[in-house]
Amino acid sequence: MKLRNDSLLANVDGPPTELIFGDWYPALRSDLLRKGKTTTSLLLGVPLLLGRKNDGRIFAMRDLCPHRGIPLSAGWFDGEHVQCKYHGWKFEPCGGQCAEIPSLTQFDTLQPGKIFAGAYPCVEQDGYAWVYVPKPGENRAPASLPPVPELPKFGPRFTTAHLQADLPCNVDHGIIGLMDPAHGPFVHRAWWWRSAASIHEKTKHFEPIPEGFRMSPHTPSSNSAPYKLIGKPETTIDFSLPNRRFETVVARKNGEITHWFASLTTVTPVTASTCRIDVIAAWSMLTWLPIVRPVAMWFGKRFVRQDQETMMEQAEGLRFRPAMMLIDDADKPAKWYFALKQRRLSGEGEHPLTGPVELHWRS
């Protein structure tokens, strides 16, 4: 389910930011890719043509013909080859290799097979088409790729749901909003979640993980009512570059997991000044009851919509490029994110967390 407000999104763009290439990003829901059909997407400012071949494999190509630059999406796809509308050049879409140039004659020495359109590694995982977007100038299919992100699962029976929302701000503002622990009672104020009166002091422990940090296993906040449905659970939250927040909530009895909830939220840069939230969630409770999923989707849609509306309003102010004021301890995760990002981009520096840290805030 996708949340939009095109009239607002068209009129508010925040300032751009530097993007992290050389990693996997979700381009779109994979159920939108039908055999013999293509669709388009935009990741990190790169125009993409995505589709599914007759054998079921999905692909992602740069949506530009290497001949004259016309979008390949203007042409045709027969389930095996993408054909350019301008001069009929054909390409095998998974690797990008040119299969035919109709204008060549017996007198031409050009070998079509030596020509390649842009093609990117593309994998179907957890209901998304994940695309590896290389660094500019990098081989589009490096010999060694990082693992494709995967939603944690703790049993064979579970229900899943997906949500999506466009944001008119750059990925940095989207991510620090995602990890911000203090906005809940204000942005997400509702009878079924939190109220202003529920604010109280909290203490959380954090620890470093590769390219990110973890909120160590803890009992969920007492003012987060939905978690009570699981029983007496334990929550762990991980953030890792370039854009991923994993949350797992598990309840145990005699050491065995009895109920669980897991989510993977990504904030994906569409351009240098706009981004998109994608959420996939899975849970083990009441999988046999049909009404549970639509009810969960209703609450989830409301929750994400509250974030989206707030970011739209913030984007109005960001147009004037205000300086940010990050305070301790509630804004410490945002500081860690910026330090981790700079470390990734420059290839230099130490992890901002040298060991376990205890933070305090009210929310």
UniProtKB/TrEMBL annotation:
<keyword id="KW-0001">2Fe-2S</keyword>
<keyword id="KW-0408">Iron</keyword>
<dbReference type="GO" id="GO:0046872">
    <property type="term" value="F:metal ion binding"/>
</dbReference>
<dbReference type="Pfam" id="PF00355">
    <property type="entry name" value="Rieske"/>
</dbReference>
<dbReference type="InterPro" id="IPR017941">
    <property type="entry name" value="Rieske_2Fe-2S"/>
</dbReference>
<keyword id="KW-0812">Transmembrane</keyword>
<protein>
    <submittedName>
        <fullName>Rieske 2Fe-2S domain-containing protein</fullName>
    </submittedName>
</protein>
<dbReference type="GO" id="GO:0005737">
    <property type="term" value="C:cytoplasm"/>
</dbReference>
<dbReference type="InterPro" id="IPR036922">
    <property type="entry name" value="Rieske_2Fe-2S_sf"/>
</dbReference>
<dbReference type="GO" id="GO:0051537">
    <property type="term" value="F:2 iron, 2 sulfur cluster binding"/>
</dbReference>
<keyword id="KW-0479">Metal-binding</keyword>
<keyword id="KW-0560">Oxidoreductase</keyword>
<dbReference type="GO" id="GO:0016491">
    <property type="term" value="F:oxidoreductase activity"/>
</dbReference>
<feature type="domain" description="Rieske">
    <location>
        <begin position="24"/>
        <end position="131"/>
    </location>
</feature>
<keyword id="KW-0411">Iron-sulfur</keyword>
<dbReference type="GO" id="GO:0016020">
    <property type="term" value="C:membrane"/>
</dbReference>
<dbReference type="InterPro" id="IPR050584">
    <property type="entry name" value="Cholesterol_7-desaturase"/>
</dbReference>
<keyword id="KW-0472">Membrane</keyword>
<keyword id="KW-1133">Transmembrane helix</keyword>
